[in-house]
Inverse folding.
């Protein structure tokens, strides 16, 4: 075929290979082991493996779980079923298969951006640049290591941009329908990806002789595609409504106190975007969006408008996870490439163009270094496992340990899925040899904590206490924060009181943490990383009573 003789397409395949390699390095990180025989060291992967496994091996066509749409679960179920034909699967293998599928989705999104960029700009050089920028986008690389819906959705959001460009150049009914199908598939992978329809609407609005029938056809195609890949709402409407009710409440009230006190616009910029795509790509994206409107380049409008509207809308949520911005990464990669191209064209003297190119090259090198540092975390032993090893070696069996609710950021003492047993655990668990005193529970929504006295200040306080920085950072941050809502004030006071008692009555025994470094050079303090970028490095501290 002619495309395989195209030197730019061949170069794009090399970029695809680079993207895949970056997403496969360390992909076995945190798989189930003797301590965590069912769950991985990522807090959410089990929620996707359970329905995928059930659909693959228990002859059910519905996942019965709708916190996420079903497309990725169906892909996972099909992958598990095919791989099982070659031999029995272990729990570790099943997680790995789902992770590999997510990594392939992530690398495929890079290739989709190449085709979208070529269609948008008419330049294959521009397309190659945009695809490279997504290939090395830090958080896109990092989150491609997990069995999650958030990276797979970026493939479809890139395809939405491709068909938005097709609609602008060829506003046929067929292109509108296919664009709608891509929106439906994106929403069927992750609900918030339904907002990618903004790109299609923008493209439709910019076409001459636009017809409402085309837009309606696109919307109808999106709805049909969504229900094809997520049929649960049709067959289990009440169960689906229950899951959606929780998700709406979750977005309104937040994720416990994790994001409490932050301003959405500020946090999304300084954390989700600054660390998620890196300072260089963020700067280039802003330049690209500004140049789009200054130059009135309508071809870039769908990507730029989609990015801006999504940023403004997402700030209203109380859950400010970095992964929620993965959806717009393909659009931001195109905007960043346009920023490089537009500034280069605006600079007429050759020395200035050379200086701009050298500056962009240095930025690309730094971004790649940052990506390698994030990947380096996956090549290190999880701190949870290291802490578990230390506790079993140095603390006598039968000892009572004090800790907050043992979420996934803690040493591992539970071998089931949130305390439950599974019928397909194939890793021999280590017997749990300790008893536990939980200092507080994890509450999604505000409520008054039930406590009469500070456990760590009591005469019979446990000899040892275990804390993760996930549970210490936010209470201390909110202690004197005027933006802390009244509903969470008692919770913050309770947790700070326990932390004060810890400081007064306990001494640090051992600390487990990593550096964000590569080749011995530290990028920056890993404590600065946002919540869901720190999963490979939960800083764990073990204390002994004075």
């Amino acid at each position: 075929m002619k495309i395989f003789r195209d030197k730019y397409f061949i170069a794009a395949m090399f970029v695809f290979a680079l993207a895949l390699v970056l997403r496969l390095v360390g992909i076995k990180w945190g798989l189930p082991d003797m301590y965590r025989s069912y769950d991985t060291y990522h807090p959410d992967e089990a929620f996707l493996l359970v329905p995928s496994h059930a659909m693959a091996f228990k002859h059910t066509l519905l996942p019965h779980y709708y916190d996420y749409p079903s497309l990725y679960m169906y892909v996972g179920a099909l992958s598990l079923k095919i791989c099982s034909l070659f031999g029995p699967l272990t729990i570790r293998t099943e997680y790995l298969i789902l992770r590999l599928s997510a990594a392939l989705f992530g690398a495929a999104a890079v290739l989709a951006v190449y085709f979208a960029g070529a269609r948008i700009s008419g330049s294959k050089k521009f397309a190659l640049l945009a695809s490279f920028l997504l290939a090395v986008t830090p958080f896109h690389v990092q989150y491609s290591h997990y069995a999650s819906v958030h990276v797979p959705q970026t493939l479809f959001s890139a395809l939405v941009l491709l068909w938005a460009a097709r609609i602008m150049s060829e506003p046929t009914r067929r292109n509108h329908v296919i664009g709608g199908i891509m929106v439906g598939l994106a929403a069927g992978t992750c609900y918030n990806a339904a907002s990618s329809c903004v790109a299609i609407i923008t493209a439709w609005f910019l076409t001459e002789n636009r017809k409402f029938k085309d837009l309606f056809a696109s919307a109808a195609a999106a709805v049909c595609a969504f229900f094809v890949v997520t049929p649960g709402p049709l067959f289990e409407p009440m169960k689906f409504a229950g899951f959606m009710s929780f998700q709406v409440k979750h977005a309104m009230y937040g994720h416990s106190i994790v994001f409490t006190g932050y301003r959405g616009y500020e946090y999304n910029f300084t954390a989700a975007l600054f660390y998620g795509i890196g300072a260089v790509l963020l700067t280039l994206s802003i330049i690209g969006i500004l140049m789009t409107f200054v130059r009135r380049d309508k071809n870039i409008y769908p990507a730029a408008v989609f990015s801006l509207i999504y940023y403004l809308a997402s700030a209203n949520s109380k859950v400010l996870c970095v992964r929620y911005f993965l959806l717009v990464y393909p659009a931001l990669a195109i905007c960043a490439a346009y920023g490089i191209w537009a500034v280069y064209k605006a600079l007429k003297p050759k020395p200035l163009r050379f200086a701009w190119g050298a500056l962009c090259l240095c930025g690309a090198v730094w971004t790649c270094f940052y990506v390698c540092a994030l990947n380096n975390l996956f090549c290190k032993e999880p701190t949870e496992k290291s802490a578990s090893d230390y506790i079993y070696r140095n603390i006598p069996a039968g000892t009572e340990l004090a800790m907050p609710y043992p979420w996934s950021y803690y040493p591992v003492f539970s071998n089931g899925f949130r305390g439950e047993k599974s019928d397909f655990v194939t890793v021999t668990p280590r017997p749990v040899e300790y008893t536990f005193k939980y200092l507080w529970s994890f509450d999604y929504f505000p409520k008054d904590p039930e406590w009469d006295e500070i456990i760590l200040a009591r005469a019979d306080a446990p000899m040892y206490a275990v804390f993760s920085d996930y549970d210490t950072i936010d209470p201390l941050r909110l202690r004197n924060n005027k933006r802390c809502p009244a509903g969470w004030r008692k919770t913050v006071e309770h947790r700070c009181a326990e932390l004060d008692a810890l400081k007064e009555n306990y001494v640090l025994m051992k600390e487990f943490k990593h550096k964000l470094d590569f080749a011995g050079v530290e990028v920056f303090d890993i404590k600065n990383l946002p919540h869901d970028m720190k999963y490979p490095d939960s800083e764990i501290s073990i204390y002994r009573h004075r």
